[in-house]
Amino acid sequence: MFPDRQEALDDLSLEALCVRFQLTPHGDGSFRHSEPATDAAAQKTEYILLPAAEYLPWQRCDGAATLHHIAGGPLALSLSPDGHHAEAHHLQKHQHVEIDANNWHTAETLGRWSLIALTRPDATQIEPAAENWFPSPMASPQGSA
Questions:
Q1: Cα separation, 20 vs 40, whole angstroms
Q2: What is the DSSP letter of 110?
Q3: Tell me, what's the pLDDT at 53?
Q4: 35 touches 47 (CB < 8 A)
Q5: Is 141 exposed, middle or buried (0-12, 13-18, 19+ CB in 10 A)?
Q6: Shortest CA distance to 85 belongs to which of 103, 99, 69?
Q7: What's the sign of the alpha-carbon dihedral 94, 98, 34, 13?
Q8: Residue 102: which region, alpha, beta or left (left: phi > 0; alpha: psi -120 to 50)?
Q9: pTM attached to this predicted model
């Protein structure tokens, strides 16, 4: 189902994208469809459509994953390896980022919508963060600025 790079998706409506990728509403405000692993490497792909004002809640996988930006507006991807330090990546169409195992991550569209794919080994588990959780800076040692 992974689209061809030449496929024109950016002008489609949310409804048309949901039909094209068999996406259904998810409890977090996104639309999703998971494809079972079919290749020898047993990689599972989850397609996620993030409309404006919605975001992928913080989560982490117990195995490495790859997030692909497929179509739509630019995507802000935030990663936190330890729940304290964080870094942001801005992805355009056809870019991807490798996410190390156990790294917290979230994503938000910077446009009307963004279509992404999260590919990971089939056996990995996704752990959602607690509601309203986000990385918090470590407290400074006493006496330092």
A1: 26
A2: S
A3: 93
A4: yes
A5: exposed
A6: 103
A7: negative
A8: left
A9: 0.86
